[in-house]
Design a protein that fits this description.
This protein is an alpha+beta fold. It contains 18 helices and 11 strands. The chain has helices at 3-17, 25-36, 63-73, 80-85, 94-97, 100-104, 107-116, 149-172, 180-185, 205-213, 232-241, 244-247, 277-283, 301-309, 313-324, 328-335, 339-353, 358-367; strands at residues 40-47, 52-59, 118-128, 132-141, 190-194, 200-203, 217-220, 223-226, 253-255, 264-270, 287-293. Helix 15 (313-324) crosses helix 16 and helix 15 (313-324) crosses helix 17 (339-353).
């Protein structure tokens, strides 16, 4: 086992420990920052629709600049639309959004990034809604240089695990490891503790009801199984039984239903190492299976138009600003680019969408808004 593999496996174990103890995130983010290569890291959310956001967990970011970003600069960040519209797990750096010379002319770069010595950020959505996204990002200082292939390779190795730990932690919410059984019994989500053969050694009330209903999950030879007998759940449980190394990059998330049924998802958390080991020993379990119903993602108007008309990130952020502000000057100030660049992007948007005026664009955006959009 080479040094990188050893470090990676220990890091994955620490990531999954945060599912049971969220206070571990700052230390884990510090290790993630060092592994990927950067000066800071954060799990945060932001919205391209409302120009708002918040930080869940962070390491290495000055509190003053963190507050300043969300109070003033999130709406001026030219990377926000691309971050929110990227696919879950897709890594995005400045170079994926716009030429760096153009980014260097923005207010975000000149007034927020430069004073901190930040030159780039590699981020990815962990979860998405119709209006925004929860993100993981590693910030690069001028000492590290721009995001390179090595940083992308390393981030690719750990991002799936960050997402699953964050999602499981959201389901588990405030459960404490030492009071796990009581916490599990109080969850709306169905939770099962299983041994290496998938046999259920504990099920909370929601889990027991699900087994009795037999529409999503059922027992086969005392082992947890999907209603349609697909082997994938058993395979993932077996992998989780091998510990954090067994889950690999491909994962521990299992879809349990498909359209037109309501979407159900299982997340399998290994209990064989780290802060989770005591729980596994207590219940003779190697894995915890969290089952919950996911919401159908309603695409935002910007996401729909981006895909339908092939808009670039630059064109997309100008389109978003046109929907909120009146006049080239106001759009330029909002996006943080020159009026000439706004006009160039706007002409390309007109050509791609078959429109001629800003009022026509605004009507087109409204026509593509999802049925559940906020008024």
């Amino acid at each position: 086992m080479n040094l990188e593999t050893k470090v990676l496996l220990e890091l994955i174990g620490n990531i999954y420990d945060t599912a049971l103890d969220a206070t571990l995130w700052p230390g884990v983010l510090e290790n993630l920052t060092e592994f990927v290569g950067g000066s800071a890291a954060s799990i945060y959310c932001k919205s391209s629709a409302t120009a708002a956001g918040a930080v869940y967990h962070q390491f290495g970011i000055d509190p003053h600049y963190q507050q300043l970003y969300f109070s003033k600069y999130v709406g001026l960040d030219p990377t926000t639309p691309a971050h929110c519209l990227a696919d879950i797990g897709q890594l995005v750096a400045v170079a994926d959004v716009m030429p760096y010379r153009e980014f260097a002319d923005t207010r975000l770069h000149q007034e927020w990034a430069t004073p901190q010595g930040i030159v780039d950020c590699l981020s990815t959505p962990l979860d998405k809604s119709a209006t925004g996204a929860a993100l993981f990002g590693v910030f690069r200082h001028e000492d590290h240089g721009m995001v390179d292939d090595e940083a992308r390779r390393r981030a690719h190795l750990i991002v799936p695990h960050i997402r699953r730990a964050a999602l499981i932690g959201n389901v588990l919410k405030t459960a404490e490891t030492m009071a796990l059984m009581a916490a599990l019994n109080g969850l709306v989500a169905a939770v099962f503790l299983v041994d290496s053969n998938g046999r259920v050694v504990f099920a909370n009330p929601s889990g027991q009801e699900m087994l009795e209903d037999r529409k999503i999950l059922r027992l086969r030879n005392d082992a947890l199984a999907t209603a349609d007998s697909r082997p994938v759940l058993a395979d993932v449980i077996a992998a989780a039984g091998e510990g954090d190394a067994g889950v690999g990059v491909s994962g521990i998330a299992v879809p349990l239903s498909a359209p037109p049924q309501a979407p159900w998802l299982a997340h399998v958390l290994p209990l064989t190492s780290g802060a989770r080991r005591e729980t596994g020993i207590s219940f003779a379990a190697v894995a915890a299976v969290f089952v919950h119903q996911t919401s159908l993602a309603v695409p935002s108007a910007m996401e729909s138009m981006s895909k339908l008309y092939g808009l670039t990130p630059g064109e997309l952020r100008v389109l978003a600003a046109v929907s909120e502000f009146d006049g080239i000057s106001a759009v330029a100030d909002a996006v943080g680019i020159s009026q000439a660049t706004v006009k160039t992007h706007l002409q390309r948007v007109f050509a791609k969408t078959g429109t001629n005026r800003q009022t026509e664009l605004i009507k087109l955006v409204a026509a593509h808004a999802g049925p559940l959009r906020r008024q």
